[in-house]
From TrEMBL:
TM spans (from-to): 47-68, 145-167
Compartments it resides in: Cell membrane
InterPro entries referenced in this protein's UniProt entry, alphabetically: Cobalamin_biosynth_CobD/CbiB (IPR004485)
HAMAP family recorded: CobD_CbiB (MF_00024)
Family: Belongs to the CobD/CbiB family.
Name of this chain's protein: Cobalamin biosynthesis protein CobD
Pathway: Cofactor biosynthesis; adenosylcobalamin biosynthesis
Function: Converts cobyric acid to cobinamide by the addition of aminopropanol on the F carboxylic group.
Length: 302
């Protein structure tokens, strides 16, 4: 039952300690990625340069994890790798901070806290916009920071977790559709899309099963394809429908108002919906652990 033990270890470590406050491996990786991007993202053949940068950053660490994992205690390394990739506790803390600020009527603090979760501008947000942005971010990051990492841990152990988390980090840094990264970050964005293809749909299905299932499935089917990201669309549409909320709509990025497609169905988001989104993610996590544990036990009996 090493798979379920590894996942249980990673989840417990995250629950107990949260993100490492100093010397987090992903911080060092991000610094290395920023340094390399400045040196490669120049001149011609930027798609190939981006692919080279991705390989130089991700391949050595993934292969090193595969080599180190060939020990009788490899399941412990799997669990530790998962811990560094998970962000369940951090996600809960950030979401709760926004909800508490709204509960106390402190819009300025709520805007500041929302800024930790989203890339859109928050300075002029009202309560509904704060609740909407935070709920969208929580639902999407439920996949990126929790379920995607667990999926790849179950599939390939520490090498799978490291591959997924590093690819996701490079997509977050390089996967922008702007003049600087449109070509250089194309490979990073496509690889992240591929690695998230199955986990995102399993996450969307889990959200749907644990809430307003019919509304969630209908929203997923009707709305996911209109979203810019092939994986965020299903996750957020199903999550919004499961909660009975209408998300999406306008948002300001770099001073420009973007009209985004609708997500879900129901009433607009409110501050009280942020804890509901966190509860949906928490129940989804327990369901995943239960299913993986039962599957692991069944595999050992057969």
């Amino acid at each position: 039952m090493s798979i379920s033990l590894s996942i249980l270890l990673g989840v417990l470590l995250d629950r107990l300690f949260g993100e490492v406050p100093r010397w987090h491996p992903l911080v060092g990786f991000g610094n290395a990625a920023a340094w390399l991007e400045k040196r490669l993202n120049i001149g011609h053949a930027r798609i190939l340069r981006g692919a080279l940068g991705w390989a130089l950053l991700v391949a050595p660490l993934t292969l090193a994890a595969a080599w180190l994992n060939k020990t009788p205690y490899g399941w412990i390394m799997d669990g530790i790798a998962l811990y560094f990739a998970l962000g369940a506790r951090a996600l809960t803390e950030h979401g709760s901070d926004v909800a508490q600020a709204l509960q106390h009527g402190d819009l300025e603090e709520a805007r500041r806290r929302t800024g930790y979760l989203v890339s859109r501008e928050t300075a002029q947000m009202n309560e509904e916009q704060i609740a909407r942005a935070t709920t969208e971010s929580l639902l999407e990051n439920g996949n990126d920071a929790i379920f995607g990492a667990i999926f790849w841990c179950a599939i390939a152990g520490a090498p799978g977790v490291i591959l997924f988390r590093l690819a996701n980090t490079l997509d977050a840094m390089w996967g922008y559709r702007n003049a600087r990264f449109e070509r250089f970050g194309k490979v990073a964005a496509r690889i992240d899309d591929g690695l998230n293809l199955i986990p995102a749909r399993l996450t969307a299905l889990t959200y749907a099963l644990l809430g307003q299932t019919r509304r969630a499935l209908a929203s997923w089917r009707a709305q996911a394809g209109s979203w810019s990201s092939p994986n965020a669309g299903p996750v957020m549409a199903a999550g919004a429908g499961s909660l009975g909320l209408q998300l999406g709509g306008s948002a300001i990025y770099e001073g420009i108002i973007e009209e985004r497609p609708a997500l879900g169905a129901g009433r607009p988001a409110e501050g009280r919906d942020i804890p509901r989104a966190l509860d949906l993610i928490a129940r989804s996590l327990w369901l995943w652990m239960l299913v993986i544990g039962l599957g692991d036990a069944l595999a050992h009996f057969l």
